Amino acid sequence: MKVMVVDDDVVSRMVLMHLIDGCGKFEIVEAEDGADAWQQLEGGLRPGIVFCDLRMPRLSGIELLQRVRGQGDLAEVPFVLVSSATDKETVQQATLAGATGYIVKPFQSEQVRAHLGAFLDQAANGYEHRAEEPAATLARLGIAADRLLVYLTGFQNQLTAASNEIDALLAHDEQAEVRVRLERLLTGCTTLGLHGAATSLKPLIGVHVSNEAVQAALTDVIRAVLHQSSLVRQS
After folding, report:
1. Each residue's pLDDT tens digit in the chain (235 positions)?
2. Do 44 and 17 contact (CB within 8 A), yes or no?
3. Beta strands in the chain (DSSP E)
4. What angle do CA 28, 23, 42 make, to 5 degrees?
5. Which residue intervals of the chain bear CATH 3.40.50.2300?
6. Nearest Cα to Cα of residue 79 among 59, 99, 107
7. Which residue of 10, 48, 153, 232 lies most exposed, with the fewest beta carbons within 10 A?
8. In the chain, which residues fall in CATH 1.20.120?
9. How many whole angstroms separate alpha carbon 48 and alpha carbon 126?
10. Given this model, what pLDDT does residue 119 score?
């Protein structure tokens, strides 16, 4: 599968390409900015997924995303925005523009792997998505689909931050603090109807956990969030 990486910062581009390469055998295509990416896409390039920096000269990530979503045969391509920005307004703008996912710099290999795994053959990866039907979640929470997408994207960012926090906490064996964060994430899964993700987290509550076990569970939760977001858009 072709994976397109768009970033005007060559170091960030190289780091992300290295992480993608470590996730499996992918054909990686790079673009030095949004304008370069659009030129390649107009020329017939059809990637399986795009990882794109948010802020770039000539053509920003949001502007490229809007063009992609308006192009018939490209409109459904998974498009992951990458940025150091974590404010609610930026995340909401990305969601409303049609971003499939949002990764916060500095990159974490687990987050990159989760985005790639979400768009590969689920059965081949041993992943079975178990969650409430989006329509049922909308009715239960009394919200519209665009608001649910904002919640899912926000939860994804919370998971990314928690991954880094828990890694640091476990380095000092702060098990109690880790439990607080895991319980908070479990509440998020339950609220959003992510049954399978909740099942991944429950065994970690109240026991002495390792960083490997936590990171593996968080990767499953992120994958569930991404898959559910895709189902919400389809509905």
Report:
1. 789 999 999 999 999 999 988 877 789 999 999 999 999 999 999 998 999 999 998 899 999 999 999 888 888 888 999 988 777 777 778 877 888 888 888 777 777 877 786 555 443 445 578 999 999 999 999 999 989 988 988 888 788 778 778 888 998 999 999 999 999 999 999 999 999 999 999 999 989 999 888 988 888 888 888 888 878 877 7
2. no
3. 2-6, 27-31, 49-53, 79-83, 101-104
4. 25
5. 2-107
6. 99
7. 10
8. 134-234
9. 20
10. 53
Reading the block at residue 188, the tokens are: 């998020």
SS3 200: helix
Q: Which residue has the tokens 């479990």?
A: 186
Give me the pLDDT at residue 118, please: 58
* Two structure tokens written together for 52: 């794109």
Measure the CA–CA gap between 224 and 226, rounded to whole angstroms. 5
Distances (CA, A) of 21 to 24, 27, 121, 227: 6, 9, 18, 22
Question: What does the pLDDT look like over 186-200, one tens digit per residue?
Answer: 999 999 999 999 999
Dihedral sign of CA atoms 54, 56, 60, 65 in order: negative
Which CATH number applies to 2-107?
Answer: 3.40.50.2300
Tallying the residues shown for the chain, one arrives at: 235
Q: Which helix (H) or strand (E) holds 190?
A: helix 175-191
Structure tokens at 155: 């939860």
